[in-house]
Every structure is written in structure tokens, then in C-alpha cells.
Amino acid sequence: MNLSQLEEYTEIFQVIEECRVGGKFINENSGDFEIKEAYNFILQFTQEVKTYYSIIGYALVSGNGFFYFILKGYESIPKSYVNGYVDYIEIYRFLKLLNANIGSSNGGPYSASNMETRLNEDIELKTMVDKMSFLKKRSTNREAIDSIIGRLKQDGFAQSLGNRTGEFLILRSFRFIEDIIEDIEYEL
């Protein structure tokens, strides 16, 4: 790719830049067409994108089906960054107990209603939810489920499924959380 070609990719670079600035993942299985298009562009021009962003001090990190940007020098995940995802240890354990198949390789779709039904029937799941510190301000099991799904969406690990209320997909970027948990388990 040369400089004359860059102009035709302006819109894709705007999406990539929004993701970099916002700290968002660029997922292969995103329901957002622009994110998918950005993913495919990066996949095709990986070295060029790496070089372009390295000039301003960012490294492009690739996972299995996703990309994200991190400041150079932090290509391995720093412990302070991992500490920001402590809640995800609880979320991950909850999701795996809820459905062992939930993960980055099996994106769903999943239903909040089905999750709520399981939570209403399973004392072990209820106990886990009661211990989640970020869920303290809830009054119903549905609020707990909605908060967990909301957190996943907010942090770029899940996405609503079109206009179907309560249904969502787990995105490839969830592998980021799976890797962190594997690293923690390995360290222990």
C-alpha cells in the first residue's frame, strides 16, 4: 500500500482510530459492518498498519479473531492492566458454570432469559452472583444478568444480536479474558 491508496481507506482508518483511542477491540465476528471491514483491512495490511501506528507509539496486537492497540513497551499485558479485569475472573467463572461452551470460540447467540432461568434454579450460581462486588446494587436476578451482559458489551467482549431483545454474542475479543485467566492459573 502506498500513500496514494490511503485516501481510499479514510473511512476504515477512522473506524480503526476510534477503536484505538477508545481502547476497543476490532473483532472478526462483530455484528458491526464497519468493525468487520476494519478487521479485514488490518488482516490484509497487518504490517502496514503496525508500521503506521508504531510512529505514534502504539503496537498492534493480534489475537485469534481480534486486534487491539496498546502503548509500545506494554506488548505483554502489564499487571496494573490485569488488575482492571479482576471482575472478569468472577464473570468468567460464572459464565463457564452457567454454560461450559460459552467462550471466544463459541460466540452464541445466548439469551439473558435462559441465563436468568438457570440463575433462579441453581444455588451455586446465586452464591457466585451474590459475591460479585460490581453487582452489589441489584435487587433481582435479571438485574444481575443484565449488569453482567452490560459489562461484557461495554468492554467490547459481547454485542447485542440485532433487534432481538436480551440476545447477545460473545465476541472473539473474549479470548483476551480467557488468556488472562489462563496466565493467572499458570502463575498459581
If you had to describe this structure to a student in words, what would you say it looks like?
The structure is a single chain. With 188 residues, this protein is of the alpha+beta class. The protein has 2 domains: 3-71, Arc Repressor Mutant, subunit A; 82-187, Arc Repressor Mutant, subunit A (Orthogonal Bundle), CATH 1.10.10. It has 10 helices and 6 strands. The strands form 2 sheets. The protein has a 3-stranded antiparallel beta sheet with strand order 1-3-2. A 3-stranded antiparallel beta sheet has the order 4-6-5. A hairpin with a 6-residue loop joins strand 5 and strand 6. The protein is elongated and about 55 Å long.
Please describe the structure with a list of short key phrases separated by commas or semicolons.
single chain, 188 residues, alpha+beta, Arc Repressor Mutant, subunit A, 2 domains, three-stranded antiparallel β-sheet, 6 strands
